[in-house]
Amino acid sequence: MVEQISELIERFVRERDVPDGFAQTANQWYLEALALITARHSDAGRPILVGISGCQGSGKSTLAALLRVLLERQVGLSVASLALDDFYLGREDRAARARELHRLFATRGVPGTHDTAWMSRSINDLLTGAGEVITPAFDKSQDDRTGRERWHHYGAPVDVVLLEGWCIGIPAQSASDLTLPCNELERSHDPEGEWRGHVNRFLAADYQPLFDRLDLLLVLQAPDFGAVAQWRLEQEQHLARQQSQRGETTGRALMDEQQVKDFVQYFQRLTLHGFEVLPQRADLAWQLDADRKVSGCLGRAS
């Protein structure tokens, strides 16, 4: 039975930890994405891949969850929602990459720290295959992949695959853009540009072919990079609350404000690049304010 959109949004807000005013934001802004995805699927006559891009803490996971609910229960489409973060390499694999290429690859985040082969295979199986598709899950509190009991199971094919992640749709930079360090992390630990060069090559070779398959790209645009650190700190605090509620006594310690500022430097270069290029590449791009509320639409790709 098809459910009313207003009822679905009200229930979504009641059942989830979402910011104040989210229902109004959803009704005013996000229903256009629902209509766009529905129309694109109908026009394509096949399963479609939709990217949701935005910096840390911008609300990508919440938007993906809402769209999945609306597409399944209001439109009647089958949906798989994948997170780029779930395809992070485990600690041991990142340590091996750090030994082989550059020590900064030990820290998860940038292109080169994901299992892109598994991600691409999963998406292809969901769009074109039949049977069960299993995708991994990553536990940020442990900084490692979870046990198999927490992995995700989908029946394929589905009508829509939602892929959300912080660098979805961002293209590689030119060689000249890599010359100067963009922050203290790069100045101190990558003065010759070796790490950022590897990151850029991974982005071009392993990620761009997947981005080229996107049927639609939705973007949540932060007001500036200063908001990223604040939102990431809020995520860290939320993670700590979840650990406490589960009664966990082990796991990664909560990062303080300075540690968060240091951590987001790994993401800064490509986040700033995304600020510049993603609105022009997106089918829908929403401008966020410092409170993560949508303040306007940056325009649509023709």
Shape: globular
Q: In which order are the strands of the major sheet placed?
A: 2-7-1-8-9-10
Low-confidence stretches: none
Gyration radius, rounded: 19 Å
Instruction: Provide the structure class.
Output: alpha/beta
CATH topology: Rossmann fold
Features:
10 strands; six-stranded mixed β-sheet; 302 residues; alpha/beta; two-stranded antiparallel ribbon; 9 helices
Describe this structure in words.
37% of the residues are buried. Strands 2-7-1-8-9-10 form a 6-stranded mixed β-sheet, with helices on both faces. Strands 3-6 form a two-stranded antiparallel ribbon. Helix content is 47%, strand content 16%. It has 9 helices and 10 strands. A hairpin with a 4-residue loop joins strand 4 (138-139) and strand 5.
Q: What topology does this entry show?
A:
Elements: H1 5-15, H2 22-44, E1 48-54, H3 60-75, E2 79-83, H4 91-100, H5 116-128, E3 131-135, E4 138-139, E5 144-145, E6 152-156, E7 160-165, H6 184-189, H7 194-211, E8 216-221, H8 225-245, H9 257-281, E9 284-288, E10 294-297
Parallel strand pairs: 1-7, 1-8, 2-7, 8-9
Antiparallel strand pairs: 3-6, 4-5, 9-10
